[in-house]
Amino acid sequence: MPSLAPRPDLESLPKYVPGRTILGAIKLASNEVPGGPLPSVRAAITDAMGDVNRYPDSGSQALRERLAADLDVPIDRLAVGCGSVSLCQQLIQAVCGPGDEAMFAWRSFEAYPIVTQVAHAVGVKIPLTDGYGLDLDAMLAAITDRTKLIFVCNPNNPTGTVLHRDEIERFIEAVPEHVLVVLDEAYKEFVTDSEVPDGVEFTRTHNNVAVLRTFSKAYGLAGLRIGYAVASAPIAEALRQVYVAFSVNAIAQVAAIASLDAADELLERCQEIITERERVRNSLVDMGYDIPPTQANFVWFPLGERTVAFSEHMLDRKLIVRPFPGDGARVTIGTPEENDLFLAAAREFLS
Ligand SMILES: *Cc1c(COP(=O)(O)O)cnc(C)c1O
């Protein structure tokens, strides 16, 4: 008799390392925004608590109606998920059979290889350019008959680099129609470069483009787990089919709508982070660090073998950053005071 054991391939599954939390330390590890929920969002969350004896709306109908109106897309092209990480996995489950390929840049969002393998697909990693950006030509060249999906993270996590409208246009035109291009726009609200397109525009003209957005970053709801996808109607329907029933909870749905109501105020908060991002990067470049220009709420330190030493140096000063050993460290932009402490520590690391 065979004995019960988990799938053997899970032993080789890369671990998703969450940003560490240490009492009294400053966490610059998970690309969260420093501000808590606005009073209006807090009130909506408090109100929604009264109904938690009921199951949530598994179709997130009210939120999808709101997003349909805000984005000017038909409601049948929207799917809501338990964070956009969950939607990444649903997309692979929706289009990849066992052994099909999902392609992504590397380094990019660390959840991509994990959700790919969990869904029995094969991850194909394409190295970044020398400027730490996505190498779209290399990605095109790596497409095979088995390629079903390509993640294009814009801005790219963890490097902060962006792709421009003309680059993405050319890429989408060249990708075969049987391959789904997923534009992951988790950091869209922090982009100031006007050449960076709104991915939803591509979904209006191309059935093989999907866009992922999240309420975790600019909208400040990381702890509630909610994001959405805009895609063609059949892909959006497939996303809803593979959805784990009721996984987007009722409080998250209400908080997302309240956050859209408060979008002006929330986006103004992002403006402060953008200002700080520029200040932090300029200071680091002045110190002599190689920091790629960033359009997100974090900066990338391509430190190679010095990455772990850098992270340990920061931990000794109660600053938590996100190291990717052997590659680099990602540091989230915090409040001005937090950033000042980080900059002082970064200066010390050089001496
Ligand atoms: C943070 C992030 C997400 C969103 O995560 P949630 O599951 O919505 O919290 C998606 N993609 C990228 C690239 C991210 O960095």
Total helical segments:
12
Alpha-beta content class: alpha/beta
Give the tally of β-strands. 12
Gross morphology = globular
CATH topology of the largest domain, which one? Aspartate Aminotransferase, domain 2
Strands ordered across the widest β-sheet: 2-8-7-6-5-3-4
Order of helices and strands: EHHEHEHEHEHEHEEHHHEHEEEH
Q: What Rg, in angstroms, do the CA atoms define?
A: 20 Å
| Total of domains | 2
Enzyme class: transferase
EC number: 2.6.1.57
Domain Aminotransferase class I/classII large: 26-343
Protein name: Aromatic amino acid aminotransferase
Structural features, described:
The chain has 351 residues and is an alpha/beta fold. It folds into 2 domains: 17-37 and 264-350, Aspartate Aminotransferase, domain 1 (Alpha-Beta Complex); 39-261, 3-Layer(aba) Sandwich (Aspartate Aminotransferase, domain 2). The protein is built from 12 helices and 12 strands. The strands form 3 sheets. It has a 7-stranded mixed β-sheet with strand order 2-8-7-6-5-3-4, with helices on both faces. A 3-stranded antiparallel β-sheet has the order 9-12-11, covered by helices on one side. The chain has a two-stranded parallel sheet with strand order 1-10. Helix 6 links the parallel strand 5 and strand 6 (180-184). Pyridoxal-5'-phosphate (PLP) binds next to helix 3. Pyridoxal-5'-phosphate binds at residues 31, 83-85, 109, 153, 157, 184, 186, 214, 216-217, 222, 227.
